Amino acid sequence: VADLQVMEGAEDRAVEVSRAADYMMNHRVKNALVDARALLDTFLEDPPGSGTPVVSQAWDCLQTGIEWCSRRLLLLRVLGAEYVPAFAAVHLERFVRDVARGHDVRVMAVVDAWVRLDSEICGFVVDAALSNAVKHGHPTTPDVALSAHVQSPGSEDSLMTWRRVVFSVTHRADPAKPRIAVERGSGAGGD
Fold this sequence. Notes:
This protein is globular. The chain is of the alpha+beta class and 191 residues long. The mean pLDDT is 79. The relative contact order is 0.10. The protein has helices at residues 2-45, 52-70, 72-79, 92-100, 119-136; strands at 88-91, 105-110, 114-117, 144-150, 165-170. The strands form two sheets. Strands 2-4-5 form a three-stranded mixed sheet, covered by helices on one side. It has a two-stranded antiparallel sheet with strand order 1-3.
């Protein structure tokens, strides 16, 4: 009987994790598809020959939606506390541009360097930060920007060979919302 209760508890937890992962994935895929549809509507309303950038951005939105469909297993592992980080060499500038694809975002000063990071989880977190910056930013001109750099070690880290990769997402705040108090050094908050 006790084993059956443990199994039922594990099964309930698996269903709960699955629902949470599906909710997150569906939300992001829906946003990508809505953005693509709006861009394609704009293209269809514009005079011929003026929409190439719009179609390209719509394509990027669709690609982002497709990528999020493949992230379901990642979400299940993260939400189920079963995720094991997988660090690999990544070209930072290419990684940032790939993550920014499909977002209306300016990519700022990104170091042309190879770094070791977990591209799945970093991509997930940066993508969520970009989506939130647009969603919670200025309603008409959120002016979202993304940058990344490799932090120099402090004097206490002079013997260490690792460097921290810092991603920064900024946006223009929504004037109708209250300002967010930012703790010094937290890295949170908008302009």
